[in-house]
Amino acid sequence: MPVPAKMRRALSPAAKETFVATRGLERCVFLYPLDAWEAIEEEMGRLNQFDPEARGFVRTINMWAEELALDGQGRIALPKANPGYYLTLSLGITFPFNLAFGIPLLQKTAILFHSWL
After folding, report:
1. Residue 79: what are its φ and ψ, rounded to 5°?
2. Is residue 74's pLDDT more than 80?
């Protein structure tokens, strides 16, 4: 993806011609210069980590964050989506949930159902 010359000239030296791309809200991509991203990381670090919504927000934003450097022609290459990542992520969430809650709940339901017969 080409970055317009006007935008490249506006980058601060602290950005080191590097951007951070992450999943945005409403299925879009956010693109930040590196120095702006570092400020956002500081702000996210101040959020209450005991609040499940804040923790989920920080995890989601950071999970998709990827540093992208400008190439010699002033372009950045957005990474391709990895479908295996979604499968791994869903298994990482649902499998422990099923072990902790699903199987015991199914077992208690079966015992209750059997007692009615």
Report:
1. -70, 150
2. yes
